[in-house]
Amino acid sequence: MLKQSIQPKQPSTTTKTPMLVVESLVKTYGKSTAVDGINLTVEKGSFFGFLGPNGAGKSTTIHCITGIAKLTSGTITVGGVGVVEDYKAARKKIGVAPQEFNTDFFGKTWEILDFMAGYYGLDTAARQKRIAALLAQFDLTEHKDKEFNELSGGLKRRVMLARALVHDPELLIFDEPTAGVDVEQRHDIWQLFRDLSAAGKTIILTSHYLEEVEMLCDRVAIINKGWIIADMQKSDFATDGNSLEQVYLDITRNDTKHA
Known about the structure:
It is a single chain. The chain has 259 residues and is of the alpha/beta class. Helix content is 35%, strand content 25%. It has helices spanning 58-66, 87-92, 109-119, 124-137, 153-165, 183-198, 210-216, 234-237, 244-253; strands spanning 18-29, 32-43, 47-51, 73-78, 81-82, 94-97, 171-175, 202-206, 219-224, 227-233. Residues 1-14 have low confidence and may be disordered.
């Protein structure tokens, strides 16, 4: 067990421009509170790790950001646009690759990308150009006419990532993006994320593979039982030679305040 001296920190004051601001977010389902008044600020261009045990409130928070779930109270803005006040404008700024494969399993690879590009208003010429580029980027060109259910798990994951990028959003949310992916493809995906980050994209990553969060992210927040219990730069977690995984386990196991 790690030392009890490891304490959650609040993010330091910064003059950077925020891409995502979550203020006093509460989400309830009947008598159950999934998210209990959390605050998060993610700056433009940052690579943000969002961690927590199953049922901690990660998915609920993401659903509120993307408009899948209705906020009980609080506010969320993406690039200065309120997700409630102007849902369509806010949603155009976000690309999501969910953990679950929420697409037409009988749709062909290019059709899945084409549908999403059309949803975001790209005209025919722009769609064709963007889809061709993404198919090449994700090594999907030879699979473009295959139905989604014919693809391997790794290829399905790549289609989900390509779909998230089809409208060139400013904020990318990757939920368990390497689940079920082999080692070689996982490294390819990590390199893609590095390239996107270097290009200035803002990325939120949720993952149970804490080594990839430690490798890729510059800041990490931990949610537990609907509360943010730690939010700090990655370097602040790695104290006394401890790994992010060790500190994560210590913080969540010793979170008696929200038991």
